[in-house]
Amino acid sequence: MTSLRQRLIEDMQIRNLAVNTQESYIQQVSLFARHFKKSPELLGPEQIRAYQLYMTNEKKLSTGSIVVAISALRFVYRVTLKKDWSFADIIPAPHKPQTLPVVLSPEEVIQFLDCVRIRRHRVILTTCYAAGSRISEAIALTPPAIDSKRMVIRVEQGKGRKDRLWAMAHKRSYVPGKVMCRELRSISKRHRLLRIAFMSRCVDDSA
């Protein structure tokens, strides 16, 4: 492990960055260094600009992927290498297009969920829809986190290491919310030791 890599890891640990963020930053800085076959310490604004053009024009990476790489480079140069640059100018982030999602009607959502035959898959999809949850948060649910009376789910240390409450249903989607409650209660009763991690093999797929 190089001294720069070690300092980068320590800087991220000191700031208590999420593990996934740390791994992503290390990977992106490593890709940048390997592209030029030099340490970032020996590279500057011109190489960074060339790398951004490479990601955009040759690799044709998505805007989201480029933003991750930019965030990693900004961190290593601002924090670890302590460069006194105008980072918005030296390492600009690409504009992210604003798009509208395709929204299904409540009837279409119910029809879709009814087509999912494997129970654990149906539960996770219903949870994500009714609660507006992220996949990583949904698969980490436990039975005590489900409050069916108040129709809320407690998420502990989700994205951004934040605790929050999900409303399992809104007025326009109350049916999927109730379906989810019924599914989760049924599974937790049949599998008392089950941690509601939907990819677990503990759940009977045919149920």
Produce a short descriptive summary.
The protein is mainly alpha-helical. It is built from nine helices and three strands; from the N terminus they run ααααααααβββα. It folds into two domains: 3-90, DNA polymerase, domain 1 (Orthogonal Bundle), CATH 1.10.150; 106-190, hpI Integrase, Chain A (Orthogonal Bundle), CATH 1.10.443.10.
Please tell me about this protein's structure.
- The structure is a single chain.
- The chain has 207 residues and is mainly α.
- It folds into two domains: 3-90, DNA polymerase, domain 1 (Orthogonal Bundle); 106-190, hpI Integrase, Chain A, CATH 1.10.443.10.
- The protein is 53% helix and 5% strand.
- The radius of gyration is 22 Å and the shape is elongated.
- Mean pLDDT is 79; it is low at 190-207.
Tell me the number of structural domains: 2
Helix content: 40-55%
Number of helices: 9
Computed Rg:
22 Å
Tell me the major beta sheet.
Answer: 3 strands, antiparallel
Strand content: under 5%
Backbone structural class: mainly alpha
Q: What is the residue-mean pLDDT, rounded to a whole number?
A: 79
| Intertermini distance | 50 Å
The CATH topology assignment of the largest domain is DNA polymerase, domain 1
Question: What is the CATH level 1 assignment of the largest domain?
Answer: Mainly Alpha
Major beta sheet, strand line-up: 1-2-3
